Amino acid sequence: MHLNAFLMGVGHHEAAWRHPSTDERRILDVRHYQELAQIAERGRLDSIFFADNVAVGPRVKRNVTAVFEPVTLLSAIAVATEHIGLIATASTSYNEPFNLAREFASLDHLSRGRAGWNIVTSGTEDEARNFGHETIPEHARRYERAQEFLDVVTALWDSWDDDAVVLDPGAGVFADPTRVRAIDHVGERFRVRGPLNTPRGPQGRPLLVQAGSSEAGKDFAARHAEAIFTAQRSLADGQDFYSDLRERVRASGRAEGDVAILPGVVPYLASTEAEAVALEREFTDLISPDYALGQLSRMLGMDLSGQELDAPLPPLPEEAAIEGAKSRFTLVKRLAETERLTVRELIGRLGGGRGHRSFAGTPEQLADDLELWFTHGAADGFNIMPPHLPGGLQIFVDEVVPLLQRRGLFRTEYGAETLRGHYGLPPVHNTRAGSLSTAR
Amino acid sequence: MHLNAFLMGVGHHEAAWRHPSTDERRILDVRHYQELAQIAERGRLDSIFFADNVAVGPRVKRNVTAVFEPVTLLSAIAVATEHIGLIATASTSYNEPFNLAREFASLDHLSRGRAGWNIVTSGTEDEARNFGHETIPEHARRYERAQEFLDVVTALWDSWDDDAVVLDPGAGVFADPTRVRAIDHVGERFRVRGPLNTPRGPQGRPLLVQAGSSEAGKDFAARHAEAIFTAQRSLADGQDFYSDLRERVRASGRAEGDVAILPGVVPYLASTEAEAVALEREFTDLISPDYALGQLSRMLGMDLSGQELDAPLPPLPEEAAIEGAKSRFTLVKRLAETERLTVRELIGRLGGGRGHRSFAGTPEQLADDLELWFTHGAADGFNIMPPHLPGGLQIFVDEVVPLLQRRGLFRTEYGAETLRGHYGLPPVHNTRAGSLSTAR
Hints:
Two copies of one chain form a homodimer. The first copy, chain A, has helices at about 30-40, 70-80, 95-110, 125-130, 140-155, 215-225, 235-250, 275-285, 290-300, 325-340, 345-350, 365-375, 390-405, 420, and strands at about 1-5, 45-50, 85-90, 115-120, 165-170, 175, 185, 190, 205-210, 225-230, 260-270, 355-360, 380-385. Chain A contains 14 helices and 13 strands. Chain A is of the alpha/beta class.
């Protein structure tokens, strides 16, 4: 079983910073994030992960989410940890591939092989408007750009062979120029000559992660992702997604084991189920309806300000009409419609994990639940989203991980040195000496 | 007097990695860079600085220079230091202003107010070709873009007021929405709505640094820079540059004290002058002519491969015809022509600092020299470029800094908490509550 700790401020619940269990001032304190990573490492987790978007969220009055640029933050965490993988979100829509390839190659070196890239296409209008667009680029165009972007980035990582750095002071050979190559990419959107100016990192390529669950997103993930984060609210949904994704992986010519599928879970844990339910209730009661409406507006791509809270949502369009995050739209729409929720009820359900599944119970119950999903074809592991931090991560590491270890489901020591190794993947070697054109 | 340590691999001399005083394997080791920063901090230096370019250098066989992306690297150094300023180079030609503003705001938070940005426009063809261009964008166009880029970046930093983050859990107010504003920038090259999604950093704005010495570069520096790195090979040249720059600062309506002018110096230090000269000679003898020709080609913007080493340079055009780094071109041209150097001699002179001044002597002699420049209107401090690392920085910190301190020229303890403070500048406050449009 693979476990990723999805970290966000002082917790995933939108009101975490208002709960007495957290210290809201730590949101801007790098030591907080270093300590979270150290707790996760103590639990032998595969990785930590920071989401990102490139716009201030709606309702800045009530909360902000991703305050620091994730690669910059993970670099500060890399040097305070030894083993745990470090996954940063970065956008293919609003970066230059050369810069992104270099940042992740740098992080891979600085962390000695622990860098991972969560590939996103950035589906909100607020983000588009920070980068010269009037509105969100079309969903299909974003994925086309993502494909070419990824082609360029991987070619840049591969522009240095494994053994290109010779470092022979006597002969004065720093690198073997036949093992460092221009890539001469000429595509519809990018023209990039290369090579990269950072030598190949310890992993060859950072781990590729994806969380898109639209049709285009699932196909992209099936072709490229090595770990997949997904929001699945029931075992049956999880099983459907898992088998669908596995089938797409096979269809794209890859081995099933090359991909780890990690549904998210927001765990409210206490020593009795009643206490855990009460804890979740405490968080729900702290929700600011106006902030939650802003988050919901963002997820649905429509402005809900002024919406009556005790009425159902207005009628929603079909997914095909959505240019933003299609699958999150559909998840919310299904939840609202099938359970006939009022907006207030919907907000309560979404408060903890923006659509991800919540779980309230004892550590034993959560271990049972994770084992069930893991052994019933719904998950290769889990994306753990503590509602409050550091407490919610501490209790998971101290009380759930040991149960999983005792059941033989989870590692008791790190068996590998790199993030790819934690996920059971080999490094990506590159020894195509002399192919393509050589650097001068 | 202000002192910046300009760090590069295992030394500024192009053959530093071949010299027995260095361990070339440390070029890819983050702990090496952390230790260099700690040495500089032990000497109470104002700052450390990493240059950058966004292409592999010519002659990758012989050396590479900037291997890691500087912000990523400085973030790992920030958490291993307490006081010293952290200056990263980043390009206005090949980044998006929103991303750059966010990275530097993040670094400013992670370092508790120690971030600085060395603004470059990227003047080589190799770089242009990694970002969709066939050749270097015209010099004047690069500076026009730099101006608009900086306007956007500073507006984004200013999109949060000092006191915008309220963090009142009881009232549920994270930030005051009247103190977080869209910037609604619409210019010739950029359309950026804002606000930034990172709150205002401890310095308000990171320190702005510039090293352009062309006419356009000097005007840009005079309008915006708070520290200026420059290559000046003689006291007279240094005095001319210093008074010219100061005059431009006055003409642009700023106070002279708002800018620190820091000429570079590459110090070869030993307990006798003869030993120091011999040390410099050891480095010169290790130069690979083909690497040095590549560096020279890059500085002059012309291909010199196949050039006869014991002949003078071919005739060079006037600076006006150069679209790359104009002032570095002129510096090299003047050096070659006025001293009638052969290419081999020119390469030897440039080997240590790519045009910056070398100094070989005792610590006492260097302290005298720095004092002379400092007290004779040529410098507010110095950009120290150790030819070999860590040794060249260690001897500067342990043997030159104490002399400067004893003469009352340099601080004995840090008197400020931020990089701006080290350079005698106040934080940039922003309290224009309610101006512009407010964030939702």
